[in-house]
Batch of 2 targets.
Target 1
Amino acid sequence: MKVLQRFYLAEVLSGLGLTAAHFFRNLGRHIAHALGRVDARGAVTIQYPEERRPYAPRLRSLHRLVRREDGSPRCVACMMCETVCPARCIYIVADEHPNPEIEKVPARFDIDLGKCVFCGYCVEACPEDAIRMDTGILEFSSYSRDGMIYTKEVLLALEPAGPGGRPTSPVPISADRRP
Amino acid sequence: MPNLTINGHAVEVPPGTNLIEAARKIGVEIPHYCYHPGLSIAGQCRLCMVDIEKTPRPTIACNTPAVDGMVVLTETDRVKETRKSIMEFHLINHPLDCPVCDQAGECWLQIYYMQHGLYDPRMRDEKVHKPKAVPLGPHVMLDAERCILCSRCVRFCDEVTRTGELGIFDRGDHSEIGLFPGTELANKYSGNVVDICPVGALTDRDFRFAVRVWYLERATSICPGCARGCNIEVHVNRRRPHHNEGRRVARLKPRFNADVNRWWICDAGRYGFAFVDDKTRLLAPSRREDGAVSDATWEEAIGAVAGALRRFAPDEIGVVASPKMANEDLWALRRVLEQRGIRRVAFRVPPREPGDEDTVLIRGDKNPNSRGAELLGLDGDGAAILAAARARVVKCLWVFGHDLLQCAWDAAETDAALRAVPLLIFTGTNANATSERAHWVLPAATWVEREGTYTNFEGRVQRFRAAVEPLGQALPEWDILGRVLQALGVEVSAPRAERWFRELAGAVPVFAGLTYQSIGDGGAKLP
């Protein structure tokens, strides 16, 4: 290293210069835009959550369980997702389905979102296309660990996202977050 | 002895051996569905095709006895092509409902498709539909769609149990396995048809949807259900406690032993493990004083028992050992008895109703280790001990496992005896009416939670291994007795079952020379 580089002073000043250059350039562009120069566009901050960027169609968001026509889960409790899940956040308990053609149905299907890593393997592994991650819901939080466990009933009530990846079903709010 | 060549390897087999067994001898597996070494040969599945030199076309290996000079090839292109076609044929009407099928993971259709099939399905027509989820009896569920008509179950019911409930009905691709009218698959060995079914057609109703098979861990063991000592495998689910309602032992499967049970076990043994994860399990040592039960530590319990053995004269102490205890436990008990000079000991408690018996496997004596207890010299008059307790001669009674109020002895008299003794100690796995009357209860580990050996009625010493951890604070009986012995002032070395067995083999002449290694997985017959 050269002696000059060892002081870092030159590098610090050049970094500050770069930041300042961007700041003044954007300032100028925004002023120009405000004065009627429509083609001048400065850097934009999206005012989340009031403003949102459109989500990519393949975005992995909150899981949902796909329903049959009668509203029962399409899931047959084969445990493929539970087996493949690297975070071990899926808990399924199987039960007998009254229709022997379907035969098996989950009595319980819990996802512990506190553990989920959103890898999407459960969707890949599902042989029945019964679980999807296309709700567009990204905001779920809780004050407790139990509140992060989403049950079969909650997951079944969710709908796929609408245009631009906007959620079409209400965000499930855990009991401890309700007012 | 015919000498033949299989895939270039020379092999000598006894006359009459078929090619599947001959190939198995040199480690070559010929895929098959219908052939089972314990049943007659049907030649139904046509999968075990092999090429034999000088024969015009592939031949089934199961029904071809090995002949001197035969040259067999199991991996020629023609054989591989034949296997592939036969796999495709078997799967034409198969519903491919592996996600809901309990056999998935141990299904020979899955295994052989991956090994020998891997074709692109050409079946475009609607598959033939057949009844699904039909209970055939108390233990077996039939899914006729999944069946490949290998007829193993039919042959089992005809040849092994000789009850003949099952048959193949209808013709062509409408053929299906079914019950003869007015019958039910309720023989004492019905669970075995689930084991021999290579596909998911016959599944276990007890195990239905309980745990997926790939979550199970296995341990070799011995069935404790009767004096036969059938070799079994214990399948436990330790990693997913939310499955099977938290019960750890998921199922028992037979393990081949040519000298004991061959490939089979009875239903009573197969489904007789519910007590292991039952609510009545004893989880911690407890004491009962003035009717109030409170938990105690092992130190307190061992101290109390050792103190009692010291306090009472040897003639005032009676011990009712159990023929469900392993050899190691019984030997540790004998050491305790010898240490204190206790002579009043028995292990036989007659059941209310004599146990059922047959000529296949089931023995009337429903205890796994009566022979071991006899050989260790613990046979005495149990009724006399209770009579002495009633007469207030015996002042301390130590009962292992038995519910003395549920046996052939008069319940009122037994109750009087249990109430008369000033100190009643109970050691066992589950609570019962006797343990409720006990002043000290020491929880014991069940046989799947510990190691040990049983001696079956023929004098075969067989080893069982631990499959799961003991529930709560339960300990194996040998450990409890070893701690008591230590409290009585005898030095006891490292607490392991094997150590007790080594000591037993060194001290009891009939067991001389036996070690856990020499017993192995097949057991060792006593002279």
Target 2
Amino acid sequence: MKAKKALSHLLRWETMLVVLLVALWLVFDAKDASLQAAKLAKGRKATDVFNFTKMLNGMGPYLLYSFMALGMALILGMGDIDISVGAIAALSASVMGTVYGPFKKVMAPGLALALAILCCVMTGAACGFLNGFLVTRFRELFPMIITLGTQLFYRGFCYLLLGGETLQYKDDTVWVGFKKLYNGSITLGDLSIPTMLIWFLLLAAVFFVFLHLTTGGRKLFAIGTNRVTSRYSGIRVDRFELSMFVICGVTSALSAMFYVGSVSATVRADAMVGYEMYAIAVAVLGGFSTGGGKGNIIGLILSVIIFGVMKKGLGTVFGLPDSTVNLAVGAVLIVFSLLPNLLEDLSNFRRLRRQHAQAQLK
Amino acid sequence: MDKKPVKNGRAGGFNLLSFVIEHREIPLLGVLVLLLAGVSIAVPGYFSGNYMNILKNSSMNLVMASGMLCVLLIGSIDISVAAVLELAAAIAGVLMRDSKISSMIGMFAIGIGVGALIGFVNGAVMSFGRVLPIIVTLGMTYLARALIPMDFILGMNKIARIDLTDYFKEFILHEYLGIPVIVYIALAVVVIMGLFLKYTPVGRSIYATGSNEEAARMRGVKVKWIKVLAHVICGGMAGMAGIMRLGYYNAIEKGAANGQEMYVIAACVLGGVSVMGGYGKITGVVIGALLIATIDSAIPQLFMNATMMKEFFKGILILMAILLNVLLQRAATKRNLKGRDI
């Protein structure tokens, strides 16, 4: 009995995600096959648009917000929320673009780029620090309200740095370098795996170890479950929370570097608007709730894949416009946070009815 | 030593600090007056030339913020208001373009109806499904934003001047006694909302639910339905603001009100509304919305290269104002507690 319960606990959310992924995959694959058959019947050349290799190769755009989602997972695990990640990423990219030019004049391009990337990461960390500082010092306000405010501030800072213009790296090596960061792949037999996916999985592995195998992760979920109790049991809540916000800022800066590659090594002040929503949606579908105290990195990785498959499938296989994809994202977000609660209600209801029936029998 | 008479556990007589705690909007009013005075001195003739613009620009924010007040009072939050605004305006605009409706009341009914429907879904999922309000309204933002460019609503088009009837375009900015209708609408909404929250049993139930849900439930308040109602009001107000926006700018397209929800929430938080629920007044919200509109209109007057600086200073000023408000509250509470014999 106990083993059964433990098993059900372990498998509940992640199994649901796997089932969802398989269902989506089968639907898209069947639709793709029927499209191909229709084309062949008409005597035209048919291309397989949805299969494992194509999906793996085209994972790039769906991985941009996955780094942010990892950082967001830490924040959500503590029961906080950070709406400013998109603005942090835009600001980091802006800073990187702005400082590269002056640096290049005084030193070798490679060194200048390394320094610019360092500045990018430092900006992310500094923004995260400001968020964390304000959140831990102003407990009267929700983290949401504070990060709404800081988001406006960071975005405004971007406009101050760049104006309304598009900043372009007028430099071939850097341009190619960033493109490679985004587009590059490693060939492994028949498959070519995007390097971005490997970076993501590596980072996810680090986060997995931290969240589920170290005391740091235990502390994090303890804070998410009950902040006051955690403080009385000797966790330095404020300091810990602050450092988690800094890590979230750094992951946003990482996203920004890949993003620069995806838009042909240019930077705009209004880049990455709405990415925070994607990051939150991915993390929530992955099992992290804004209530805090629960979540699993495996679920998050699955949810990143589900988002990619869903977008790719709806977009290329069904040929639906982008707005429909967003519709699906919204629906998935609401339904999947509603479903566990409804199931719980149902089981409670049945248990009560059973108890009632037993009482009547006596 | 004879003591002063004690009333309600506090030292008698007039205590400025306790007065400030009771009325959180008073210091904010001071800030607003100071800001207006400062800008008027820096830019001569600023106030007389701009006060009507401030009122007009703040009216939509004000209507949404008074809806948001209800939601914040029950300890929830709604970040889908901007998306709801766009959707309601788009649906009403399309119906007017296809000459399905032409009357003023019809437009407002459609707008409020669409908003209230979305608010109902938000509230029902949040209240009966026990999903956190941020998640529900975030998902709803996606849904509403995704519905706008669908073929049966806006498609690839947008609603422009020619799609609207002349009467509608005239009406919203038509002036009676030198004040445009849009300001009257905002005023009416604010007054009705204030009276509703303060004097009706349902309004008091909203406060009760926010300050102590369990106690309210014991007292016989239908807590779950009150929560749904608050979200319905918020959605309805957002829809109404959509129609007002349509009349004001005579155009609506996808992403027109992007980021507006921040200013709505900021107006409430500035006005001293507690995000934990149970505390907040409509007067504070009015002053908060006016303050944001003043910041908005003052920055281009103060700085020459306006648009870029505006974003920057708007963000930093709103953040500072919110934090300053909290610090002020803290100082006041601390001083006040010191005065008591515990």
